[in-house]
Automatic annotation (TrEMBL):
Family listed: Belongs to the glycosyl hydrolase 1 family.
One MF annotation (Gene Ontology) recorded for this entry: beta-glucosidase activity
Catalytic activity, EC: 3.2.1.21
Protein name as it appears in the record: beta-glucosidase
Positions of the catalytic residues: E317 (nucleophile)
Species assigned in the record: Danaus plexippus plexippus
InterPro entries: GH (IPR017853), Glyco_hydro_1 (IPR001360), Glyco_hydro_1_AS (IPR018120)
Amino acid sequence: MFGAVRLVFLAFILAVLANSKKISRHEARKIPDHLLFGAATASYQIEGTWNEDGKSENIWDRVSHREPCVVDNCDTGDLADDSYHQYKRDVEMMRELGLDFYRFSLSWTRILPTSFPDQINEKGVQYYNNLINEMLKYNIQPMVTLYHWDLPQKLQDLGGWTNPHIVDWFTDYSRVVFQLFGDRVKYWWGLYANPIFSEFGDYPAVMKDRIAAKSKKQGFPRSRLPQFTPEEIDLIKGSSDFIGLNHYTTNIVYRNESVYGYYSSPSFYDDIEVISYQDSSWESAASNWLKSVPWGFYKLLTKIREDYNNPPVFITENGFSTRGGLIDDDRVKYYRTYIDAMLDAIEDGSDIRVYAAWSLMDNFEWMRGYSERFGLYEVDYESPDRTRTPRKSAYVYKEMLRTRTLDYHYEPDMSLGMNVDDN
Ligand SMILES: *[C@@H]1O[C@H](CO)[C@@H](O)[C@H](O)[C@H]1NC(C)=O
């Protein structure tokens, strides 16, 4: 989970909101056979081993080591969940849950310590090979995120994503990892919606026009939004096999005179020209931005189906934060109501194929450190081996996958413990 992701789907949601739809509570709802269930994590948030075995510094190593510290409680991902060493336990948890797939990300600087393909770090490659092979042994599909926010610091020093050379750097890196892992990894994912999925292969007209007009007024010689060339539009339009969607919450937006001068300018928010808020009656997670609004999820899925000609959709993240504790009834309720909303969209015809819960286990939640917990498994950050224990939500998720049924009335008996089912 990360702020930038929230901005991306906020942009979706801005257009989506109006009135709420009542989500029906079925006794026990059948889940379509084709839908794959999994859980997700990301390299910096779980791996640890930040400066050993050949790995070099990335932007999150840099920011989490800043003094005075900027992350809550001065937490860092130096050890995180120690997944670099605990990957077998991670795969065991996937087996306990009965996951079809596991979505994880690759650490660019663990594989390419210079950022470039002149040097490939064997130990880093070995780690991902071990993880992938351990998963495949138990028929769990690896789904790989190429980039989950941990840019090499060296590339950041060169401007990072604002340097046009990043296209070549990222392509080089991607080629290396496709070559290293592509024989076994069938699912890969990267970013971006409208230019890829809309019939025009470009940013929405309103976005281009508005930013161009504002840029002119603000005294810029050209629009702050770079333009795609016709060749680029040709290249990216329809270039993805599916749309990957991280979704957590909903915002209501309004726009009247009060919006003018409300934000500093130029800025992303000033460009969108709306004020957004969340209803105070919505149930809140530990993260203050995260309110449970399942009907917002339904409306977003509907909009994707209608605006983008019903592309295959992978829900790559969805989840709820708490402050910890094994009895997480609020997370259980969140998962049930959001999955219910997703099933409504599927019934309406949405081509949703994959659902990944965020997250398999608690992890380093960026600027919030370990204070906000998203895991199906609780991680004990006092223990040296970062002991993982299933929460109530893990039992409920497991039962849902086992029975292929969403049942609001199922109550797990947690005293039985969590085992791997042979079938
Ligand atoms: C703008 O809309 C908001 C929300 O409906 C309202 O609270 C506010 O008073 C309005 N402001 C103006 C200047 O109309």
